[in-house]
Write a structure and sequence with these properties.
With about 240 residues, the chain is mainly α. The protein has a domain of about 150 residues: MetI-like (MetI-like fold). The chain has 10 helices and no strands. The longest helix is centred in the N-terminal third of the chain and has 33 residues.
Length: about 240
């Protein structure tokens, strides 16, 4: 028995989704794809930005001091264990309320683990001999961090940004459930109208945007950065 016989593939739904994506009316106004994409990027960008403001300084300091490894693991695990939708539900009963602001805060908390872990590990994995050589040259602790450890940790930090960005872009569709904007509105409106082609089209647009962050220039920014720590030179 073929797989198609077990799970029927609604080709008509796929065809109607393609028609929806090619309809010019779906690209006009504040309910059109371009504006909703802008809202989606706005929400995602600010979420990652605020997450970085919290995670990066904390990770760099802890990594430089060689402390807080257990704390970093606990924070990452706790943040991952709390569903974003649960946070949005809690925020709805507080002064934070509904909309894009609540979504940005929830997604920022969701993005912290990837940024915190990668930045901490990046600093901790810097070659101790390089650090000792910098200190032997008379560099202060802050100079070692900013001029030695941070540049060598940049590739891992960039990888953390890539992971956080993809996760946030994919999860930002939840904004539509709490009165926010973004591409999730296409999906929620489709559910409300029982319009399966629109739901499929909205899911496709979100997946396409996430793939653009994963495999596009943003996702591979670390290719343009130092590849890693320099090899020690041979001494005569």
């Amino acid at each position: 028995m073929s797989l198609a016989a077990v799970v029927p593939v609604p080709m008509s739904t796929l065809g109607d989704a393609i028609v929806w994506l090619n309809d010019p009316l779906n690209y006009e106004g504040k309910t059109g794809v371009p504006y909703l994409t802008y809202e989606h990027l706005y929400i995602s960008g600010f979420a990652v930005f605020f997450a970085a403001l919290v995670a990066l300084p904390l990770a760099l300091v802890l990594g430089h001091l060689g402390r807080g490894g257990g704390f970093t693991v606990v924070v990452s695990n706790v943040s991952r264990a709390i569903p974003t939708l649960a946070l949005l539900t809690i925020f709805a009963s507080t002064a934070i309320g509904f909309g894009n602001r609540a979504t940005i805060i929830a997604l920022a908390l969701f993005a912290i683990p990837a940024l915190l872990t990668n930045a901490y590990v990046g600093v901790r994995e810097v070659d101790p001999d390089v650090v000792e050589a910098a200190r032997g040259m008379g560099m202060s602790g802050s100079a070692v961090l900013l001029r030695v450890e941070l540049p060598l940790a940049v590739p891992l930090i960039a990888a953390g940004f890539r992971t956080a960005s993809v996760q946030v872009v994919a999860t930002a569709t939840l904004a539509a459930l709490v009165g926010g904007g973004g591409l999730g509105r296409i999906i929620t409106d489709g559910f409300g109208q029982q319009d399966r082609p629109q739901i499929l089209a909205g899911g496709f647009l979100v997946a396409l945007l996430a793939l653009a962050f994963s495999f596009g220039p943003v996702g591979h920014a670390d290719r343009y950065l130092p590849a890693g720590q320099p090899e020690p030179a041979d001494t005569p």
